[in-house]
């Protein structure tokens, strides 16, 4: 776009351009994830080898409920990925770090739950779809 002197105006920095696309409230999701992990796993113990299917059920339930909550928060404009991992707590500790921001509205929420018997890491990504 030319101004009166015939020179082009400088482009607006991307961070100052308001996006017409929706944004995702990751803080709302993080609060939900923290409560969900605590209520789902607070009285849980690492199962014996014959009952390991219980761990799969925990991971599926947590992943499905987080995805459903993401759809409630922002039903359109994003693709969602939820990663849930439950491990036996043998005193090794647990940590989860992930940053994946390809666009200014993409976001990641993560929560770690630890009790004496198990460690659960849940990571949820909201990726803006075009």
TrEMBL record:
<feature type="region of interest" description="Disordered">
    <location>
        <begin position="1"/>
        <end position="23"/>
    </location>
</feature>
<dbReference type="Pfam" id="PF03645">
    <property type="entry name" value="Tctex-1"/>
</dbReference>
<dbReference type="InterPro" id="IPR005334">
    <property type="entry name" value="Tctex-1-like"/>
</dbReference>
<dbReference type="InterPro" id="IPR038586">
    <property type="entry name" value="Tctex-1-like_sf"/>
</dbReference>
<protein>
    <recommendedName>
        <fullName>Topoisomerase I damage affected protein 2</fullName>
    </recommendedName>
</protein>
């Amino acid at each position: 776009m030319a101004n009166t002197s015939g020179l082009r105006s400088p482009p607006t920095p991307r961070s100052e351009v308001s996006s017409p696309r929706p944004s995702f409230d990751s803080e709302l999701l993080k609060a939900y994830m923290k409560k969900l992990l605590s209520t789902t796993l607070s009285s849980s113990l690492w199962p014996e080898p014959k009952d390991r299917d219980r761990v799969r059920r925990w991971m599926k339930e947590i992943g499905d409920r987080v995805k459903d909550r993401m759809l409630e928060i922002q039903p359109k404009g994003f693709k969602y990925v939820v990663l849930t991992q439950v491990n036996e707590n043998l005193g090794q500790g647990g940590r989860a770090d992930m940053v994946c921001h390809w666009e200014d509205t993409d976001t990641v929420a993560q929560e770690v739950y630890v009790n004496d018997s198990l460690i659960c890491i849940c990571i949820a990504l909201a990726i803006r779809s075009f």
